[in-house]
Amino acid sequence: MLRGDTGTLQFVNTKGILVTLKGNPNPDNALAALQVSGSADVAIDGSVNINGEINLGANVLGFTDGISTWGNDTTISTTLTSDEVMGNIVISGAAEVKIAGLKTIKVQDNASIDFIGTKTYTLIQGDISADNGIDPNVVGTNRYVIYGLSGNTEALVTRTIDINNIENILNNDISGNGNPVIRHNLVTFLNPNNTGNAEQAYNNILLAQNTNDAATSFAATLTDTSTSVNNININVAKEEQGLIGYRLDELRYLCTPESDKMASSEGGVAAGDEPIDNVAYGVWFKPLYVDTHQSEKGGVAGYKAKTVGTVIGLDTLANDNLMIGAAIGLAKTDVKHQNYKRGDKTTIDSLSFSLYGAQQLVANFFVHGNAILSVNQVKNRSQRYVFDKNGNRSTQIASANYSNMTFGGNFMVGYDASLMDGLLVTPMAGLSYLKSSDESYKESGTTFANRQVYSKFSDRTDFIGGAKLMGYTINLADLIVYPEAHAFVIQKIGGRLSKTQYQLEGQVNPYITPSDKTARTTYNLGLSGTIRPDTKMEYGIGYDLNIAKKFISHQGTVKVRLNF
């Protein structure tokens, strides 16, 4: 005889062997729990009173005789296997189950959800009676499924997959991300007409069983770093343009009549005292180092970039008023993306060619400018996340290797004004224009998350205004030192950021990138010094600080020039 008490009754058995238990327990002592574990099928031939958890696992619990009762605290726990087999209860023969209350049905859901609509699974089959009806709370472990209970002659667990419900859940997952286009791209991601890799990516994200994992995966899948990379390419070209501009000002300063006024009060040697031929013809090179930090802005992830390189130039005085030159630049930029793109990395190798010149005009006015063409080899490493059937996350790397060109130029007008003995101020104003080329490439390295990327050109037009200040030339033990300071405002007045589109194979509509959120106003402050130990050599050092909203960069340079 099976006796019931307030403890737990556990059946452990091997699948394929039916255990039949005779029971007629004391009705005053209901079971606190009844557990069918292992791979057991159990049949109860008698009356059992239960007022606790019935844990079925993926097994069958049979009631074959007698009148059993379930109290108000009864709950049922069941498992739905990956083969869509649910642990269930079968009431057969002369058995009857009277249900006073059924509080909760819990489903351990291991089945896939690669469908839209509703599926049903039998939980209780047979003769049940419930004076107050059955209205339990049905819950399950898959957060994307809406669970319920239906049926008249038997109890059926329902699993409903609704695309709007999934969209709401995933929208909630990404609510902490400020990127304005993620919600747009989420709708694209959920398009039911997607096929191939796009459909596989959708099915995989539904294996993510917590908000953090889903949000992390979406940040990687629905966003791109091309916005930052295009800005960096343009910024590197601007840095090299700046180096050449400073070189032109040094040449002018050392070779123009106005610099004759720069003799120091201590009797230092003025730059104009040297023969022009000794300074106007020469080869020079300037190593540079740039440390840049762009914080997240407008929902676009920030980055940290370090650029090292050098510019090598050759210039000459074509006539008394015209200086011309050419330069070649080499630079390597390592980018570590931040915020929700943390872990993504980009390397940019740049080779640039420049032509530059300066023309002295009347009454201390002058113009100078340069043109640049930069060929960039870009290597991206972007993280993608894949989930197994248990929701465990692993990382795959999507790699890309492609070429990009940046080209443009600037034109400046200035005036040399001697404010007092030994102090020369040069106000300047002009325009700069830079443009990056179109690009198209496909990622590789992941099972289904490689994207095809199409990017239209980016361009930028800036107004530049500011001044340079030349101080006393200083004669120290036959070394002539030329100090300089400058301040400029760079104001964006036109241009557009690349409209990049990217998509997975089988994706109906492409993802989009956010609108241009780069700062429109940048402030540049800098100091430099040039040392001439003799007429043949020049050495220099410089520092520049560029500041904008949520942007800062530090640039250091050294210079060596050999005069012919």
TrEMBL record:
<dbReference type="Pfam" id="PF12334">
    <property type="entry name" value="rOmpB_passenger"/>
</dbReference>
<protein>
    <recommendedName>
        <fullName>Outer membrane protein B</fullName>
    </recommendedName>
</protein>
<keyword id="KW-0472">Membrane</keyword>
<dbReference type="InterPro" id="IPR036709">
    <property type="entry name" value="Autotransporte_beta_dom_sf"/>
</dbReference>
<keyword id="KW-0998">Cell outer membrane</keyword>
<comment type="function">
    <text>The 120 kDa surface-exposed protein is a major structural protein which may play a role as a rickettsial virulence factor and/or immunogen during infection.</text>
</comment>
<dbReference type="InterPro" id="IPR022095">
    <property type="entry name" value="OmpB_passenger_Rickettsia"/>
</dbReference>
<keyword id="KW-1134">Transmembrane beta strand</keyword>
<dbReference type="Pfam" id="PF03797">
    <property type="entry name" value="Autotransporter"/>
</dbReference>
<dbReference type="InterPro" id="IPR006315">
    <property type="entry name" value="OM_autotransptr_brl_dom"/>
</dbReference>
<comment type="similarity">
    <text>Belongs to the rickettsiae OmpA/OmpB family.</text>
</comment>
<keyword id="KW-0812">Transmembrane</keyword>
<feature type="domain" description="Autotransporter">
    <location>
        <begin position="276"/>
        <end position="564"/>
    </location>
</feature>
<dbReference type="GO" id="GO:0009279">
    <property type="term" value="C:cell outer membrane"/>
</dbReference>
<dbReference type="InterPro" id="IPR005546">
    <property type="entry name" value="Autotransporte_beta"/>
</dbReference>
